[in-house]
Specification:
This protein is an all-alpha fold and 121 residues long. Helices cover 91% and strands 0% of the residues. The longest helix has 55 residues.
């Protein structure tokens, strides 16, 4: 009898909170909410797993980047020249050579012109 009173009291409390006296509807709402809760737990778990995976990927890529930086620094210390910098240096030297060659050509032309003028004097 005591169990029946406790069950009846619990039912009356649920009925008051739910605002409904239909037991089937109350159970249906409870089950629906339980399913929603389980679905949310599953979604949270999937999101946590995805976060952990992405965090691990990020750490892996940071370590790879760090190893590349160390490799580049070691090559630089050993005299390695960045190919882009080597191209810039080569272009600068080529421009300097062309300027020097142009200056030499101009010098020869002026020297010939001067010899020609002196010959006519």
């Amino acid at each position: 009898m005591k169990n029946h009173k406790e069950t009846e009291a619990a039912y009356q409390q649920i009925k008051a909170c739910a605002g409904n006296d239909d037991v089937k509807e109350i159970v249906s709402k409870f089950m629906s909410r339980e399913q929603t809760y389980q679905s949310l737990l599953m979604s949270v778990k999937q999101s946590e797993d995805k976060y952990d995976h992405l965090k691990a990927q990020c750490t892996e890529k940071e370590e790879y980047l760090h190893s590349l930086q160390i490799e580049y620094d070691n090559k630089k210390e050993a005299g390695f020249v960045d190919p882009r910098q080597a191209d810039r240096n080569l272009a600068h030297e080529l421009k300097q050579y062309e300027d020097d060659n142009q200056a030499e050509t101009e010098y020869k032309r002026l020297s010939q012109e001067m010899e020609h003028l002196q010959a006519h004097l």
